[in-house]
Amino acid sequence: MRIAGGYPLAELSSASVGPNGAVPATSAAQRLKSIFGGSVGNLVEWYDWYVYSAFSLYFAPAFFPAGDSTAQLLNAAAVFAVGFIVRPIGGWLMGLYADRHGRKAALTLSVTLMCAGSLLIALTPGYATIGVLSPALLVIARIVQGVSLGGEYGTSATYLSEMATRPHRGFYSSFQYVTLIMGQLVALAVLILLQQVFLTSEQLESWGWRIPFAIGGLLAVAAVYLRRGIAETPAFNSASATAGGGGVAHLIRAHPRQILVVTGLTLGGTVAFYTFTTYAQKFLVNTSGWSKDDATLISALALLVFMLLQPLFGALSDRWGRRPLLIGFGIGGMLMTVPILDALGRTSDLARGFLLMLAALIIVSGYTSINAVVKAELFPAEIRALGVGLPYAVSVSLFGGTAEYIALWLKSIGHEQWFFWYVAGCCAVSLCVYLAMRDTRRHSLIQGD
Q1: Which domains, and CATH codes, for the chain?
Q2: Residue in 372, 349, 385, 357 with CA at minimum distance from that of residue 172
Q3: 195 CB contacts (<8 Å, ≥6 apart)?
Q4: What are 134-150's pLDDT values in tens digits?
């Protein structure tokens, strides 16, 4: 029996036991159920995270004093960056928790925290009602969500990589970004429905922006229920995993090279990803002069194709190796970012804007589709969640979380094009890492292979 993409169901059902987290015999149905449960929870987490970015055009005036639109977006972007700053704390705490108490327990805890953060944003009164307490509560909510997401990435990457079998690990682990992008698409779909069907722009800016945060809180409750029913990974249940990894000191002492690889591998990818997903919508409105509705529509269509590309690129990595895809992203990002952003900033044609966005996201797919499995394959099971999550969260906090703020700040001082070169430069740095690293498909530490 075969499933989507031609992957045999039977190949999910067995593997041999090994010292580094080998996967013992597991039924195909149980494995697929667990991958689905873990992925759905990931979708909800990222929906909650991206709702903030998708609706910031509407809620920024509610939380911050009156001013020009760029200043209000800059304030909203600063709070967005705060959520990223605390993500290393989540990567550290949740990574330790996942390596000591199980991937399942950590995944359930992370989605619970995300639920709390979304509900707090939905219920917080605006600046006109409670003054500075309003943006303060917004910051607290984003801190909670940042801790949640900081732990979600490393644990989710570890969980999906350990649940998949070696021949098709790139394919199955790519569903982390399928659900990540789907979470963003659902956020945009909610925005489009509210814009086009249910509410006026005035209603959205007044109170309608609270609806998606309330939806996110309720979806997170459902995700908690689903994640309570998933299986623990065989890798964690092995003797090496249950022993625990010794924490951050042991990680730094025993795996310094892997930490540097994860950091450098992530740098260019996270800047490019957030540039062409979360910031692109604002770029089209604030720079290209598009309407909010058109910018949202184009972003959603490009992201839909981007999502569908992830399993294809993941499958290619199973055949060709991880490194060629990463190198392709590094070269494409270094050479094409500036001309794509420059052309996007000067176009008013919807079809041309869509093709430019899609071209950028095809390049980024060389990173997004496989970055999770590459990082998981670098570490042994007993410290895998921490090893993946912590250096990744640090890199995303320093570079991904600040991308939007840097872009808006450079625009505010009249040097927006400098940001284009900044993104290209980050991709060039990561390219150097890709050229120097080994291909993790051939040198994986998952299943001791």
Answers
A1: 25-440 (1.20.1250.20)
A2: 372
A3: 201, 204, 292, 293, 296
A4: 878 888 888 888 888 88
